[in-house]
Amino acid sequence: MEWKTAVTEMLGCKYPILQGAMERLADWKMAAAVANAGAHGTITASISGTPRKLRDDISACKEATTGAAGTFGVNLSIGICPDVEKMLEVCIEQKVPVETSVFKPDALVPMIKQGRVKWIHKAARIKDAVHAQELGPDALILVGVEGAGIKNPEQLPTMTTIIWGRRQLSVPIIAAGGIGDARGFLAALGMGAEGIMMGSAFMATQECRIADAAKEAILRLNPGNPDLRQRVLTPTLLKMPAEGAEAPAAPVDPDWSQAVSFSAGVIDRVLTVKELIEGIIGEAEKILDGWAFLKTG
Ligand SMILES: Cc1cc2nc3c(=O)[nH]c(=O)nc-3n(C[C@H](O)[C@H](O)[C@H](O)COP(=O)(O)O)c2cc1C
């Protein structure tokens, strides 16, 4: 089956699956593994740390993905990524798609437009997505509260966000938040998304640099766990840092299983990135085949 959607057409990847940025985890090697599996990988620019290193990382990723069925881009997490304008300059020079996230992208948009790179913005609230749409993105990622990463106190569940968002937005939507298997993937498409983004599901892949013990802990977790439920549903208190402010020191060796989302409920094996992506696609095709009602009349 051909998985052609507005998102695969725009990015040029085979499958409408995107790997989310992950602070300290999703570097160019993860992005390359995802692109080589036919999906769209994301280099988290804050991991590269400097524009020069980002240029090297993009080059390494290009080299590692020559002839790949998938593609990759760069995430610029506004307020987290250092030197964000210089990082954007590198993306423009290297002609790679850019994803902005965390805070409003307005200040970067003139440069993005002038640089003519593909641009996706990630929003947690519909009103932020509606605002971003005015600025002319190629697609918008909407993340529901089930997802991992920075939480907005006004975030709604993924289903409400995507269905309601579909009514208010005209650009292609990529759904994120608690998606980790074929059923979540198909549900997102059914809700009106043209692709999905997953973060947590990639944490439990062989390629992810977290400790094996953390991966095992993720396999044991599920949304019924009171601590996980509490963590996922609690908003992050995050303020846009003042210009030139030092980033707060992160713990050296965190327990990464604590960063996983409600997708923990469907992460039950440590797979390679390729097995994860191909497994979701294969299973989705099987499910569609089994929907006999689609074939009658
Ligand atoms: C460990 C971890 C770190 C993350 N760091 C970032 C980040 O720096 N910037 C960002 O925009 N999103 C970040 N995210 C969010 C993901 O890109 C994605 O939006 C989210 O994981 C989707 O929900 P899911 O985990 O249920 O798939 C992070 C997610 C995880 C799991």
Provide a descriptive summary of the structure in words:
It contains 13 helices and 8 strands. It is globular. It has one domain (6-234, 257-294): TIM Barrel. Helix content is 40%, strand content 12%. With 297 residues, the protein is an alpha/beta fold. Helix 2 packs parallel to helix 4 (51-64) and helix 9 (182-190) crosses helix 13 (273-290). The protein has helices at residues 6-11, 28-36, 45-48, 51-64, 84-94, 109-115, 126-133, 158-168, 182-190, 200-203, 212-220, 226-233, 273-290; strands at residues 17-19, 40-44, 71-77, 98-101, 119-123, 139-143, 173-176, 195-198. Strands 1-8-7-6-5-4-3-2 form an 8-stranded parallel beta sheet. The protein binds flavin mononucleotide (FMN). Flavin mononucleotide is lined by residues 20-23, 25, 44, 75, 77, 80, 101-102, 122, 143, 146-149, 176-179, 197-201, 203, 259, 261, 263.
